[in-house]
Amino acid sequence: MIKKIVVGLFSIVFLVAMTACSGTTATDSTSSNAALGDAVSSEAQDSPITNETDTTKAENPEKEYRAMWVSYLEWQQFDFSSESAFRSDVDTLMQNCANLGLNTVIAQVRPFADALYPSTYFPWSHLCTGTQGQDPGFNPLEILIETAHTYGLELEAWVNPYRIALTNALPGQLAENNPANTFPELVKQVGEGLYFDPSNAKAQELIVNGVLEIVKNYDVDGIHFDDYFYPTTDASFDEQEYAVSGTTLSLDDWRRENVNTLVKAVYTAIKAENEKVRFGISPQGNMDNNYNGQYSDVALWMSTNGYVDYILPQLYWGYGYTTKGGQTRYAFENITKEWAALERAEGVSLYFGLGAYRIGDGDGGNYENAVTQWQSGHNLADMVNTGREVGADGYVLYRYDSLFNNTNWADLTQSEVQALKQANQQP
Q1: CB atoms within 10 A of CB 392
Q2: Are 107 and 117 a contacting pair, CB within 8 Å?
């Protein structure tokens, strides 16, 4: 009860403060590793269970977590012209995921400080009608949850916490009620991109309240963040904020603490509202990039209770992956062991993100099998089994279209689907 009172006061203070304050390419974060080349330099761009709730679900999963990412790139192919048309597309998606043997769908519902649901804080997504802020006349998130649960799937709402715009063209013209227009003091620009300032307390409150809005109003099974945290390492990005902060921390540690504060606040708010809703984050597979490039202290989140229910690194490299410099750290058989060796607090799970988008095309590594292993028809299933061997608690596939709408490698993806089905028949 005390927690709920605190969260309620937190929301009221935020609303009062906000009222007083008037004023690259189209790849998503989970495909960030698609940039071919040296992974050390950069990888950042971008049996079904029932819906019965289990109070120990987040802390002690009874079954292997088997999930699919569905990003804004998928929504670009969906028919939002009517509720019935959208329902039909969603039904096909959920049926395919259930038939594959998955138990969870991670659906991106707020990619650019916009929403696939009516929101107090964010405008309607341009993905619904082509114009940000325009109501499609129905609630896509509601349909996603309802349909997922009909097929025995759980639905996690995937939110990008900081990103407002990736480029001038994506998402395009921002709605008048986009926070970037109504509260510009919360926003920072990097190139063509717009992001909420991670050091701004009001921006953090906005993000937390945006998450709470989903948890309070929808029967979601989880909230999911991807790997967009600090958008740059440039000291000028927040030098003024750092100078006036009064902190004794270094700039890097101060930035990490800003992210830690947000992650912990989101987790605390979710659990105060509904302890059964899990909260997870999918960082880059490159631990050094996470810590030094995006200022996300993933090892802390994994080893300390009160930050996340799971960590889901994006491990999109093949077996034997070798960088241009000859390094094999990121070879799938090596990087999985590195992640599995990290300390995990009780109740924190580890899942592996697998790059279904690599099928047929390869991973761009500097080694002989960089392409051929991705044309075997069973590479993803092999990776699922490797994850089990090293102690992962499950896996997630990036992304839906790569398996079910891949016209370039249709026969190959069918083989991968069949191999995954067989792998998922194991207990």
Answers
A1: 23
A2: no
Nearest-5° Cα angle at 138, 133 to 140 = 85
Q: How are beta strands 104-110 and 65-70 bridged, if at all?
A: parallel
DSSP 8-state secondary structure symbol assigned to residue 33: G
Q: For residue range 237-264, list pLDDT tens digits in order.
A: 999 999 999 999 999 999 999 999 999 9
Q: Which of 272, 274, 273, 230 is nearest to 255 (CA)?
A: 230
For residue 65, CA distances in Å to 130, 165, 196 come to: 34, 31, 31
How far the first Cα of the chain sits from its last, in Å, is 39
CATH fold label, 2-34+65-314 = TIM Barrel (3.20.20)
Cα–Cα distance measured from residue 366 to residue 376, given in angstroms and rounded to the nearest whole number: 18
- 405, 357 Cβ separation under 8 angstroms: no
* Tokens representing residue 287 in the block: 């631990």
**Neighbour-count burial of 109, counting CB atoms closer than 10 A to its CB (0-12 exposed, 13-18 middle, 19+ buried):** buried
Torsion of CA 341, 342, 347, 351, to 10 degrees: -70
Inter-axis angle of helices 140-150 and 83-99, to 10 degrees? Answer: 40
The domain segmentation of the chain, as residue ranges, is: 2-34+65-314
Burial 230-257 (b: 16+ CB within 10 A, else e): bbeeeeebbeeebeeeeeeeebeebbbb
Instruction: For residue range 305-346, list pLDDT tens digits in order.
Output: 999 999 999 999 999 999 999 999 999 999 999 999 999 999
Write the pLDDT tens digit of every residue in 157-172.
999 999 999 999 999 9
Which residues on neighbouring strands pair with residue 21, listed in sequence order?
Answer: none
User: Looking at the predicted structure, is the pLDDT value of residue 23 above 70?
Assistant: no
* Tokens coding 63: 């079954």
Cis peptide before 344 (omega within 30 of 0): no
The token pair at 382 is 């092999």
Burial tier of 106 (Cβ tally within 10 Å: 0-12, 13-18, 19+): buried
Q: Is 395 helix (H, G, I), strand (E, B) or coil?
A: strand
8: enclosing H helix or E strand: helix 2-20
Per the CB < 8 A criterion, the answer to whether 195 and 187 are in contact is yes
Q: Is the pTM of this model over 0.85?
A: yes
